[in-house]
Each structure stands twice: as C-alpha cells, then as structure tokens.
Amino acid sequence: MTSIQWFRRDLRLDDNPALLHAVRDAAATDGGVVGLFVLDDSLWGRSGTPRLRYLQHSLDALSEQMGGRLVVRRGSPAEVVPTVAREACAATVHVAESFEPYGRHRDAETSLALERAGVELRTTGSSYAVSPGRVLSRSGTPYRVFTPFRTAWLDHGWRAPAGSPADHTWIDLPSDSLPPIDDPGDGPVLPEAGERAARTRWREYLDAVARYDDDRDRPDLDATSHVSIALKWGEVHPRTLLSDLRSVPGAGADSFRSELAWREFHADVLFHSPSAATTSLRPVLPDDSWAPDELAAPMLHAWAAGRTGYPYIDAGMRQLLHEGWMHGRTRMAVASFLVKDLHVPWQRGAAHFMDRLLDADVAQNQLNWQWVAGTGLDASPYFRIFNPVLQGKKFDPDGAYVRRWVPELRDITGQAVHEPWRRAQPPTGYPARIVDHAAERKVSLDAYDRARRG
Ligand SMILES: Cc1cc2nc3c(=O)[nH]c(=O)nc-3n(C[C@H](O)[C@H](O)[C@H](O)COP(=O)(O)OP(=O)(O)OC[C@H]3O[C@@H](n4cnc5c(N)ncnc54)[C@H](O)[C@@H]3O)c2cc1C
Fold first, then answer.
1. Phi, psi angles (nearest 5°) of residue 122
2. What is the DSSP letter of 136?
3. Residue limits of CATH 1.10.579.10 in the chain
4. Cα–Cα–Cα angle for 294, 295, 299, nearest 5°?
5. How is residue 172 annotated by DSSP?
6. Is the CB of 335 within 6 Å of ligand 1?
C-alpha cells in the first residue's frame, strides 16, 4: 500500500507533521509515498501572475528535493485526489488542515469523495503554531482583541519542530504540465523559492533579529525578515521560526514573536468570521460616502501605478510592482491613503494586493486591510488617518526609500524629497498630487461623524 502526501500550503519536507504521518503509514506496509500537488483550476484562475510564477518555482524546488518525483495534477481536488488514490492503491491521504473559507469547503468536498472511494483524508497540523479556533477565552469564546489573544496564545504554547521524515520511497506517477502563465514580462524579480532558500534566508536574518524592535518600521533600512513569502507557501513553518527565536532572547525576538502572533490572530478571526474575507466586520461609513466608480477607477489606477504625487505612497506602490512585496509600515500608509484620501472601499485595494503580492494570503491581507480601514474587530480607529508626508518623514527620515523607488526624485536630497511640490522647479516627469490630503481627510472625518450621528 502507498500513502499520499497532498501538499498545499506546506511546500517543504522538514517540520511537516502530515508528511511524517504519510511516511509512517507507508512504512507500516512497506509501501512508498506519493507527493501530490493539485493545480486547482479555480485557484489558478484567480491568482495574480507574480504569485503563479513564484508557485511554479517553489514546486520546482520541492520536486528537486524529492528527486523529481513530485506528482502535479490539474483539475478539481474532489476529482483529482480520489483518482490519484486509486492509481496509487493508497488507503490514506495526508494533509495539513486548511482554515480559510475556500480551503475548508474544498477539503470537505474532497474528504467526502475519498470516503466514497474507501480512502481516508487525515489532517495533521496546519500553517500555524496554534491552529485557528484553539485559543479561546476563559468563557470559551473567540478573542476579538489582539493583546489578550497574544497572552493566551503565548500561554497555550506550541509543539517543537517535527523534524525530517525517515527514509522512504517517493512513488512516481505521471504529472500534468503547468498551464501557461499569461506573463506580460513586466512582473517583479522573484526571490529564490523553496524550502532551502527560505531556511538560508531565515538563518541569515536571525543574526539581525536583535535590531528588529528598533528598525522594523524603517523601509529605508530593509530591516525586516521578508519571511512572509515563505510562510505563505509553507516553505517554512512558524513553529520553526518560534523555536529558533529562543536562541536570540531580547526585545527584537519578543517583537518578532508578537508579529507572528498577529498572523495567528488574523487567521483565528477569519476562521470564526469567514465573511471577513469580503465584508467589513464593522461598517464605519455611510454607504454613499465612497467615490463613485467614474472617480474611483482613475484614482485606483494612479495609486496602483505609484503615480499619486505623494512620494512615500508612490515609493511603496512601485516597490510592490517591482518586488511583489512591500514593507509592512508602508502597506499601512498606502492602504490608508486609498481608503481615506481617495475614498475607495478597502476591498478594491485588497484585491489589487492579492493580485500583486507574493505573500498574498486571504487572512493576512483582508484582515490587515480591515485594520487600516477601521472596520476590523481590533482595528485602528477610523479617525486615525495617516498623513502621507509625515509618515514618509518619520519612517524614511533621509528619503532614501523614496529615492530608491521613484527615480524622478533622485536629485532631491534629504527629507525634501517627501514634498517635491515645495520646490521652485517641480521635478520633471513626476505627477502633481492627485488630491489634497488635508481636504480629503476632512471629507472622511465628516462622513465618519455623519455615520456616528446615524
Ligand atoms: C494592507 C496590508 C496588507 C497586508 N497583506 C498581507 C498579506 O497578504 N500577507 C502577509 O503575509 N502579510 C500581509 N500584511 C502584513 C505585513 O505587512 C507583512 O506580513 C509583512 O510586512 C511581511 O514582511 P516581513 O516578512 O519582512 O515581516 P516582518 O516584519 O519580518 O515580520 C515577521 C512576520 O510576522 C508576520 N507579520 C508581521 N506583520 C504582520 C501583520 N500586520 N499582520 C499579520 N502578520 C504580520 C508575518 O508573517 C511576517 O512575515 C499586510 C499588511 C497590511 C497593512
């Protein structure tokens, strides 16, 4: 008999409890393991080009670790997985549990289809140190506020990394080729994908984690880990990161652990409130306060292209275009600008991020957008409106981040780069501001007041 390891968002061999179970099952009958990845048409069609290209590289890296034996099949998992189980004479299919709305639905459907074929879908572990739904208050209810969640999450604790699988045989079956990616060729330069590259980058970053607390808000210093991409694809598990952090005690490691707790909190919120993927958890504005489509569309276009005339916002959006990643502090500023200066609903910005980010993840993306938009459970209050100039001066104090991403402004030295409109001679090729921040801030606050008055 064989067993199947169905890889989804766990594209790694080490510290993968579901894979350990698949290997154990196979060893019990002297069989081998099929490593399967299903190219789910409904997800493939919806994913942005940068993410698809990264996935392709990550699958290549995984297959290389498996001696080229990763089996890739296209189609609906509820049909493909039972078919592969039949071909391989497998009695069990092993997976890490999914908690997002689509993943839960897909797994329920696939489990039923497998059951009909006499095959069991076994879940072990998840993409989180503590699976969503486990951390509950004393009264047994989910947490709505981050800080008590983090305390309870730390108290709950997590298992040690699971280690590597014992020697086993990967069973070879025919694979489908990946569908062509519609790539206009202007996409981001991708970082190296795969478990090995992720581990190497993380080990290097551990030396810098001591400075995380001081430098993490500075996009000009590039002082964060970039590990979000590897976490999104499961090239590394957060349990591994949390375990390694114990070797570098101090404020840096504490802050880093706290950021990982945000990741777990958002997954938990989405698990308990799946509608948060599309709908505001707390509506804060009257419906008529958003820009009408004919205004919103050009605004959204200028924002996405990094041509709003606000250098810090444009630097962030151009980093996204060129790297498929953006610094976290800048993500907050650009999101606030879209919602509160351009009056475009958060869902449209979130959709653009899902299209462009290599780390795009429904729980992290949608809940962070809701945090900025003031519509989340534990969100920044709506009336906290980021000033795009002051944010730039504070977190990019010498303007190096702006000069890096906005070449039209490279000749302006120091902080003056955040306000090019103050110069006697406006820089060539750089747009004028598309809105006046002070005026739009007032529009937003007036709408907020109107909502509060009912
Ligand atoms: C509007 C908006 C959209 C976002 N969309 C995503 C997304 O789609 N996918 C995603 O992984 N993160 C998202 N984030 C969260 C955060 O910006 C990124 O996780 C972080 O910037 C990634 O860079 P890093 O790995 O260098 O982070 P580091 O600063 O090195 O942090 C380490 C890890 O902690 C976690 N983390 C840090 N900040 C947050 C946060 N605010 N929320 C949840 N987890 C966090 C991430 O897993 C991150 O990799 C978004 C934030 C905002 C404001």
1. -110, 130
2. B
3. 287-449
4. 125
5. P
6. yes
Residues 2-126: name the CATH superfamily: HUPs (3.40.50.620)
% of the chain residues with pLDDT over 70: 100
At which residue do the structure tokens 């699971």 appear?
162
- Report residue 235: phi and psi, to 5°: -75, -20
Q: Give 298's contacts (C-beta < 8 A, 6+ positions apart).
A: none
Q: Which atom of ligand 1 is nearest to the CA of 354?
A: 8
Cα separation, 450 vs 101, whole angstroms: 34
Beta bridge partners of 387: none
Q: Which of 72-103 are b and which e, b meaning 16 or more Cβ less than 10 Å from the residue's Cβ?
A: bbeeebbebbbebbeebebbbbbbbbbbbbeb
Number of other CB atoms surrounding residue 41 within 10 Å: 14
Residue at 424: amino acid letter: A
Ligand 1 centre distance from Cα of residue 229 (Å): 9
Nearest CA to ligand 1 atom 24: 226
**42 C-alpha to center of ligand 1: Å?**
25
Fold assignment, 287-449: DNA Cyclobutane Dipyrimidine Photolyase, subunit A; domain 3 (1.10.579)
Q: What are the start and end residues of each CATH 3.40.50.620 domain in the chain?
A: 2-126
Helix, strand or coil, per DSSP, at residue 2:
strand
219 neighbors 395 (Cβ within 8 angstroms): yes
What pLDDT was estimated at residue 308? Answer: 98
Closest C-alpha to ligand 1, atom 51: 368
The residue whose CB lies within 8 Å of the most ligand 1 atoms, and thus the one to mutate among 259, 332, 357, is 259
Over residues 373-410, the pLDDT tens digits come to 999 988 788 889 999 999 999 999 999 999 999 999 99
338 pLDDT above the threshold of 90: yes
Task: Note the Cα 317 to chain centre separation in Å.
Answer: 16
**Where in the sequence of the chain do the CATH 1.25.40.80 domains occur?**
128-161+195-272
Q: What's the CATH code, domain 128-161+195-272?
A: 1.25.40.80
Q: Which residue stretches of 45-145 are H helix?
A: 49-65, 77-88, 101-116
- Compute the distance between CA of residue 66 and CA of residue 56 in angstroms, rounded to an integer: 15
Choice between 57 and 177, residue whose per-residue pLDDT is larger: 57
Mean pLDDT (the chain) is 95
Helix (H, G, I), strand (E, B) or coil at 405: helix
Contact 434, 299 (CB under 8 A): yes
List the alpha helices (DSSP H) in 158-194.
none
Side chain identity, residue 61: A
**Hey, is 32 helix, strand or coil?**
coil
CA–CA separation, 340 and 360 (whole Å) = 22
Q: Count the residues in the chain.
A: 454
